[in-house]
Amino acid sequence: MDVKKERKTKIVFEKRLQVPTWINLVVPIVSVFFALVFSGIFLKLTGQSPLTVYLAMYRSAFGSAYGFSETLVKAIPLMLTSFGVAIAFKMVIWNIGAEGQLLLGALASTGIALAFPDLPRILLIMMMIAAAMIAGGLWALIPGFAKAQWNVNEVITSLMLNYVAINVVDYFVYGPWKDTAGFGFPQTATFSQNAWLPTWGTTRIHFGLIIALVISILLYIVLNRTRWGYEVKVIGESRNVARYSGMSIKKNILLVMLLSGALAGMGGMLEVSGVVHKLDPHLSIGLGYSAIIVAWLSRLNPFVIVIVSMLFGGLINGGFSIQMFGIPAATATMLQGAILFFVLGGDIFARYRIKMIK
Amino acid sequence: MKNVKKYLVALIVLSMVFSMIGCSGADVPAEEPEDNEPSDEQPAEKIKVGMIYIGPPGDAGWTYAHDEGRKYLEAQIPNVEVIYVESVAESSDSERVMTELVEQGCEIVFATSFGYMDFMLNVANKYPDVAFYHCSGYKTTPNMSTYFGRIYQARYLTGLVAGSMTEANQIGYIAAHPIPEVIRGINAFTLGVREANPEATVNVVWTNTWYDPAKEKEAAKGSLDSGVDVIAQHQDTPGPQQAAEEVGAYAIGYNTDMSSFAPKANLTSAVWDWGPYYVSAVQAVLDGSFEEGQYWGGLADGIVDIAPFNESVPADVVASVEAKKAELIAGDFDVFDGPVKDQDGNVVVAEGETLSDGDLLSMMWFVEGVNGVIPE
């Protein structure tokens, strides 16, 4: 009897060495399916028709020309911040600061746009991009340097700098850069048209989409086809191996953070120059945090990031649209949360083999 | 490389599944809403009105007051159907939401926070046949007007109450953003406080947020810890009221009668009544008499008022407040009638003068008696 009692069933998670293709196909689909079923029960209980809600959400995000164009608009800054996060994560540097780096990029490009409103459009936009990348990169370099020099935990420092960045932006829009003709309201004047990225037709899709797509290709090449990309990968997999083979970990931490921040900073520039045309305190509502989820779900692959960013952008936008069918905002947020929870949770079945040991 | 292909394939399949769901959907329910809704109700005549809210209607404050206005509108004009979207950030998201509301058939759109201004302007330019109303802004077009109320008049009256009730002569004011709307309210409140009690000062704490119940409450707690015994506020929720109730201090509410959240603490509230305005704004569009303009109603119009007094407010205070209210309504007196001094003691409004609406709308200075800083 006693012996039998001792024999407990154990559940063991065993990391998959090779993830079979079918797993990568089936797991996300099944995850989304379960999320929809789970939320469906919830919706049904609150008196909604789940199918109607899902279709409304889908249609507004992907099913109409306008909806899809807005999904792309939402996805553009998300792509940039996700690229930035992905390259840091590749080297197992946890840059949680994309939000702040994006804001600093937006701030720097706003400074250029306000200071040189009459420059030729191409020159002005190039300068804004450069300023945004430098500002975002330097902002990321602060935790990067602390990490490289003193091994300070970058999760904490990069996260905390997000709050500093919010306050820096607030300082400028409430203070020196406040629109003098704006009755004291906290926002800059609208940029001169020279500082606006060209848009496509009547939509808000702007040139940033092309930039994002080009960067995805460049980033893929850098990460997979260059010596430096290889170093990043080796350092990410084993610091010791990298050290023994003579790679400079310090130098690479600095480089990776610089690039990571520069990409997020460019995301901020694209948003102010492409969409908002001014700086106000409401520029980024968590784009830098969503980027962490997007990069992780995309397995840090730039091409996959492009697609996942669009799905994510659609998920965000769809949440607003279903309110027009009488779904409260809280339910929409719950729905988004459930989908993310199931997809992220389901990921464990792709990465690990789960065994029952008796 | 191999891995990459796998992920790509996975995602393509995923998106195909999404689109399959979508395709089947496009066939079936695309017609459903259009068939169903009009056949249930009387067809054609339903006027769709769109509204966007900065917070949830359950905030018990700003958005709640607008939502009450929506209900009033729907009750008064039965063939109006309001589609509202809550918790819309004052970001580029709002432009999409307003566009979608118009695409859903809304002929009138109300945006109930300042930060929607430029986004609404873009949408208004895109849809010249739709009427747009923006709350608390200053930009208008031939199809976009603004609306707001002289809540500062009500705040002056609540200031009289606060000034009479403070024993510490220190009043805390939890304020959202350092913009003219908020500063005007602080000044009007302070003028009321000093009218009742020339010794009292009003200590301003900025939260830099309209809607953040926890932060609003924390700011009020901090203010109470510093020795104030009355909390006034310009926020979207009763968070500051609850902080005052917990420590046995007094509070002055805003937006709605907040006494149910702080039955002992809340002395009175400066409140909004948007309903009648929403009815007249919609009626103007229906009558074809919409005009570009800026509506700024006061106590006399009923769009702003003060809530019933707490029983702890003495009868003589109630009487003097009611008397001032009558004067304000009659136009015998205005809140910013001179002499008014600024924080440094300089006379800004001379005896016998008052401030113009332009001065009020761009007010970026504090009156004497305010202890606080406007960030520059």
Question: Care to describe what's here?
Answer:
Helix content of chain A is 72%, strand content 3%. Chain A is mainly alpha-helical and 358 residues long. In chain A, strands 1-2 form a two-stranded antiparallel ribbon. In chain A, helix 3 packs across helix 4, helix 4 (65-90) packs antiparallel against helix 11 (249-276) and helix 5 (98-115) crosses helix 12. Chain A starts with a helix and ends with a strand. Chain B is an alpha/beta fold and 376 residues long. Chain B has two domains: 44-150 and 274-301, Response regulator (Rossmann fold, 3-Layer(aba) Sandwich); 151-269 and 306-371, Rossmann fold, CATH 3.40.50.2300. Helix content of chain B is 43%, strand content 19%. Chain B contains twelve helices and 15 strands. The model of chain B is unreliable at 16-43 (pLDDT under 50). The chains are: A mainly alpha (358), B alpha/beta (376). At the A-B interface, helix 2, helix 3, helix 4, helix 7 and helix 11 of A face helix 1, strand 2 and helix 4 of B.
List the helices and strands and how they pair.
The complex is a heterodimer of chains A (358) and B (376).
Chain A: H1 2-6, E1 10-15, H2 21-45, H3 50-63, H4 65-90, H5 98-115, H6 121-150, H7 154-174, H8 208-225, H9 227-237, H10 239-244, H11 249-276, H12 287-297, H13 302-321, H14 329-351, E2 352-357
Antiparallel strand pairs in A: 1-2
Helix pairs in contact in A: 2-14, 3-4, 3-13, 4-8, 4-11, 4-12, 4-13, 5-6, 5-7, 5-11, 5-12, 6-7, 6-11, 8-9, 8-13, 12-13, 13-14
Chain B: H1 2-27, H2 31-40, E1 47-52, H3 62-76, E2 80-85, H4 92-103, E3 108-111, H5 117-126, E4 131-135, E5 144-149, H6 151-165, E6 170-175, H7 180-196, E7 201-206, H8 213-225, E8 230-234, H9 239-247, E9 250-255, E10 266-272, H10 275-286, E11 294-297, E12 304-306, H11 315-330, E13 340-341, E14 347-349, H12 357-361, E15 370-371
Parallel strand pairs in B: 1-2, 1-3, 3-4, 4-5, 5-11, 6-7, 6-8, 7-15, 8-9, 9-10
Antiparallel strand pairs in B: 10-12, 13-14
Helix pairs in contact in B: 3-10, 4-5, 6-7, 6-11, 8-9
